[in-house]
Structures are given as C-alpha cells and as structure tokens.
C-alpha cells in the first residue's frame, strides 16, 4: 500500500508554477476551497505471531467436556511420554516459562490410570487462545507399495536426508525470529536454496546414493510425504517403516486448495481421495500440480516404535495432534469441540506440520489402516479449541481470580 501511494505521488504532473511557468494573474475571484483530503484507509492489524500476542482467557471446567475414561487414559500416557521434552524445550508460544510444567509432570508420573480424567481436571488449567475458533484436518500413517531396490514397477526414489542439507535457526542471528528455520546448501561460499520438488524429481540428487527405497506409485508417495511418515509394503509381503528425516526448506503448498481455487475439483471431490482420483485421471496436469508444492520430504528407516513426531517421540493414533509451536507448547493437552464429533475430545500436541500454522489450527492423527485413511482423508472440522497448561502459568496470564487459575 505504501509503495503504491509513493508511485502515485511520483506520477503527479507538476503545476505550471512548480514547473517554472507562473500563470497570468487572475481577477479577484474568491479562491476555490482546498480539495477534500481522502480519508486514510485503515490498515489491518498485524496477525499475532504467538499465543501470548493472540491473548488468553480462561476456559470452561474440564468436566463439561465429558471425556470418557479410555480417552483420558490414552491422553495421560501420551502426556507422560511428552513430559521430558515439554520441560526441556523453550516454549515459543509465550504461555509457559521454564519450570512451569515440573509439578504437573511429577504428578502425572505417579497418577493412577484409573483416574486419568481426575489428573486433567485438577492438575492443569484450561485456557482459550484468541477467539478459540478452530480448524482441524487429519493425517495418518499410509502404507504403499515399495521396494528396497529399484525394479520394474518400483521406480520412485525414497531419499534419505542429504549430507549437504544445512539447517539453521534464524533466532541465532535475529532474536525476534527464534524458532524460524532456514534450510539450504552452500555453493561458492554462499547459502543457497536447496533444489525444489521438480528439480529433485528431474535428478538433482541422482548419484548421491541417498536412496533408501523405491515407491511404486508417484501419487501415493506424494501423499506419504504430506503425511510425513508411512510404510512401504515390500514385494515379499514384509513392511519397511519410514519416518520424517528433514525437508528441503521450500514452502509447502496444499494442492487441494490450489485445485479447488482453480475450479478443478467439484463439491464432492474435496477430500484426499477426490484429489488423488483427479491426479490419476489427469496424469500430465497432475504431475505439474504436484510440482507446485516445492516442499520435498526426506526419510529414514524406523526400526522401533513409530511413527515419530516433532518431539522425536512416537505418536499415537486418535491421541496425537499436530499444532503450531508458536501457539501451542509441544506436549500440552488440547481440547477440541468440533462439528466432526469423531475429532472432538482430548488430544496431546506431539507433532507439527508444514501447513499447520497459526492460532487454533490442528491436524489430528488417526494411526494406520483403511479406517484411518478414510477418516484422515476427509477430515475438515470447525469449532472451538482450548489448551491445558499449568495452573501457575494460567494464573499469570489471566489473573488469579479467573476460572483457569482456580484449584
């Protein structure tokens, strides 16, 4: 807006007087009133970059959510697992400080599973970030046809993290950008962007011996990359599990929205299944569209529990939710009340995602298998979200008299 105004100012034709040609004197007419000044166009308020900036208010009582004992036990197990990382990590959201989680984590370690709901109801406080209006999608652990070696019908490389991929935290240079990552590689003494999806698919990494496997179907592999982990079903019937091991640093583009905005998808095609069907029916156009998502994910083989989330811990179907760490402390419990009842309930933020950005934006994890694929692929839920944080932190944020701070 400022640049446009500046350009407009530069293009004003100067008056004759300014140009050195004073006009002849006029008769004594009453001077014309000055032109009315156009009202200033109000600038939109900048979007908050953290939960603390978005504002926090106390939430409802935990009992009002009606969390069943089984779901509470699963969430308590995930919370216990997350506690070491939760206490160790610097909280980018601004909601908690060092030491805030110590008491809750100590209580969780000894709390009886039979009263898991009692733990959440008494040891943590519920707060709402911003307006609390939530949007939730879903992800799952896909299983696709693959091979450890290249062979006919298995020709899509699955790459491990390249050794020349460099990752840095911009906060090391600019404190206000803490948590913002930059990735690239060094060439000629300069850090340059890493090859994008199209360049990698055209052979930018060929000959570097980075292949850990080969997928049979480029469309299936594209969506496995979107999910961030998965399973390769090998020709002998065995399974190779692969997990996220880095990304090329290029921007993630959600092709479903892109295709919808271009009118390529009708109302009944907006699910993952609908997108995949269109890509298969239009292979040349589909390949070009997939390349518009320049982000490319690298993998490593998993031999233990998995898949692994952003806390470097196993994630759990119907318990783990991905969130933006600028708005949710990773490891914190999350309560959702959505128009998709299967996604409503108690979750634990143990993961992140390239498209999961902003306040009250979540991605629910559903595990593996056909049911998980169906639910995750069609998940688009809207409603309200709340976080659960230590009571001391809530008291500091909303005041000691608020419901969020009460014992």
In short:
The protein is of the alpha+beta class and about 400 residues long. It has twelve helices and 17 strands.
Tell me the span between the first and last alpha carbons.
Answer: 50 Å
Name given to the CATH homologous superfamily of the domain at 51-140 and 308-399: RlpA-like domain
C-alpha Rg (nearest Å)? 27 Å
Q: How are the strands of the largest sheet arranged?
A: 3-16-13-15-14-17
Topology as a string of helices (H) and strands (E): HHEHHHEEEEEEEHEHEEHHHEEEEEHEH
What portion of residues is helical?
25-40%
Helical stretch count? 12
Q: What summary fits the major beta sheet? A: 6 strands, mixed, barrel
Strand content: 15-25%
Averaging pLDDT over every residue, what do you get?
A: 88
Total strands: the figure is 17
Report the structural category. Answer: alpha+beta
Gross geometry: globular
CATH topology annotation of the domain at 51-140 and 308-399 = Barwin-like endoglucanases
Low-confidence stretches: 1-32, 400-407
Q: Using the coordinates above, name the CATH class of the domain at 51-140 and 308-399.
A: Mainly Beta
- CATH architecture label name of the domain at 51-140 and 308-399: Beta Barrel
